[in-house]
Design goal:
globular; alpha/beta; 13 helices
């Protein structure tokens, strides 16, 4: 029954992402194994949207490690658990809570034993900067605990690079690069600190190759140059090559002109979604303190209030002008929304 529920959730979220993003590009360096335990590890830029995109595009139902603070309310905790979210506690949650991670890590080990998948963001926090931050050793601890319990388990770590063109914008484009699976058993024999560092450096290096990595010491200057060159952030390997050659080997994407047809459809969409737009503009967006959450809250609105509003207006039209007009209004509104994003 839970599998059916997860299929429904993934299909609904996938439909929402299709309407939310202009383009979702998925690149796999190698096929992701279907019958092996997988630990997905990714850079983390765009809050909950990162997890949703991986959940929809990876081809596996994953258990996501999520910061424990969002599990505080019982109803929210139940909903998150229902979509395979597991709480992970950090120092900021209090030293007394850290021991609770033992239960979460054991759950991960049990899932791996059943050839299931777990996903996490080893940077430990999110940031819109195009830089892969140092990885925490928490994911290596999960690897060690799994292999110490089941030494013969062929646990695979799959690095992921998330690449947004402009993450806070509605109708943005995103590219997910899935790297070659890493059989971590080859790196582990003594469960030593040296092996921890080797695994961390190996995985970080792989993620850096799958997303744009800008040196944080010269970040603003470098980003300004990349933007002036109009590089394609959906092609991180090209951007990284540009950086590696000190801006000598760079590819620019075609400059876009104002698409007036797209602008017309955007205005029509706002008119049709007047109430959700007002709620977003004046009730939700002003309260968002971190830019990384803009996309997440906007997408939550797309999944909840927007469908309800469209259905409500469709029913009103149907009651006043007939079922045919109600259905026509429903599909025309969806068509307008699609064109305002995809054009």
């Amino acid at each position: 029954m839970k599998t059916v529920w997860l299929h429904i959730v993934r299909a609904y979220v996938g439909l929402g992402l299709f309407f939310y993003y202009k383009k979702i590009k998925v690149v796999r360096e190698q096929n992701i194994p279907k019958n092996k335990p997988i630990l997905f590890v990714s850079n983390h830029q765009n809050a909950l949207l990162d997890a949703l995109l991986i959940g929809v595009t990876s081809g596996r139902f994953s258990y996501f490690l999520t910061r424990a603070s969002v599990f505080k309310k019982p109803l929210v905790a139940k909903l998150l658990s229902g979509v395979n979210m597991l709480p992970v506690y950090r120092v900021r949650d209090g030293w007394s809570t850290i021991s609770k991670n033992n239960s979460t890590f054991k759950t991960c080990t049990d899932k791996f034993k059943m050839n299931q998948a777990v996903a996490l963001f080893p940077e430990g926090n999110h940031n819109l900067n195009r830089t892969v931050r140092p990885l925490s050793k928490g994911f290596v601890r999960i690897v060690f605990e799994t292999l110490s319990t089941y030494p013969e388990l062929d646990l695979q770590v799959v690095p992921i690079g998330l690449n947004y063109r402009e993450a806070t914008v509605f109708g943005d484009s995103v590219a997910l690069y899935y790297g070659k699976p890493i059989p971590v058993k080859l790196f582990v024999s003594e469960f030593s600190n040296e092996e921890i560092n080797v695994i961390k450096k190996t995985v970080q290096s792989k993620i850096k190759g799958l997303t744009t990595h800008v040196d944080p010491t010269r970040y603003d200057e470098t980003i300004a140059k990349l933007n002036a060159l109009n590089v394609d952030y959906l092609n991180p390997k090209s951007v990284n090559r540009c950086l590696k050659t000190n801006f000598e080997d760079c590819e620019s994407k075609p400059k876009q002109t104002v698409n007036w047809i797209k602008q017309v459809f955007k205005v029509l969409l706002i008119l049709n979604l007047f109430m959700p737009f007002v709620i977003w503009k004046y009730a939700i967006k002003p309260k968002i303190k971190e830019l990384e959450f803009i996309g997440t809250f906007r997408f939550a609105l797309v999944l909840t209030i927007v469908p309800f509003w469209i259905l409500l207006l469709s029913v009103i039209v149907a009651l006043n002008f007939g079922m045919l007009f109600g259905v026509a209004y429903l599909f025309s509104t969806l068509f307008i929304g699609l064109l305002s994003v995809k054009l």
